[in-house]
Amino acid sequence: MKLSIIIPVFNEQKTIEEVLKRVQEEIIPLIDKEIIVVDDGSTDSTGEILKKIKSNAIKIISSEKNQGKGAAVIKGIKVASGEYIIIQDADLEYHPKFIKQLISPILNNKAKVVYGTRLKRMPNLKHEERTFQFLIHYLGNRFLSLFTSILYGQWITDMETGYKLFPKAALENVKLNAKGFEFEPEITAKLMKKGYKISEIPIQVNPRGYDEGKKINTVKDGSKALWYLFKYRFVD
What we know:
With 236 residues, this protein is an alpha/beta fold. It has helices at residues 16-25, 46-51, 69-79, 99-107, 132-152, 183-193, 218-234, and strands at residues 2-9, 32-40, 58-63, 84-87, 113-117, 164-167, 198-202. Helix 5 (132-152) runs parallel beside helix 7.
């Protein structure tokens, strides 16, 4: 089976080489990998780093201006040739070693869509959730996931996870509109509305701090997610 790994990138000069190294080195039995990097108008040296990459295994798409994560992912989906697609963030929060765990239920015909959940746990008050910002981030994600579960009638613990694995065929005749982080609620809503049951596999992440370049805004982006979850429940 061919798996398209889409890596949206914006100003990740510190991490992009290591992410690509990890993705390339990860051996996934029975899987042919296709790596698609979408540079979303980076203004640092990310673009120059990508230009130096000489590998037939990596497809690079560049945008002249920044449009947002959702727009970058959608560009990647359009050129993906794999039967399945997964999004890999470029900031080292998600380690590619978990991809083989997410693909396992697919290969065993136990699932069609698999999310990597970070939230099948209580808040870690000694580590990432020890700060107010990350505690609010945790609680916001739990609330959005509960809202999703109630609205769409299917239990899910981490709607906002970056690790979403789904068949490309699931998006046939589906229009994706997201430009930014609202991609997460939109893809989730539209997969559920098409009748896909989302299986979840627990994963661990290495959260990046806001001082290190974390881009999501809990209040602003969380409010947008809430609206889009409600909107897409009733319209396309």
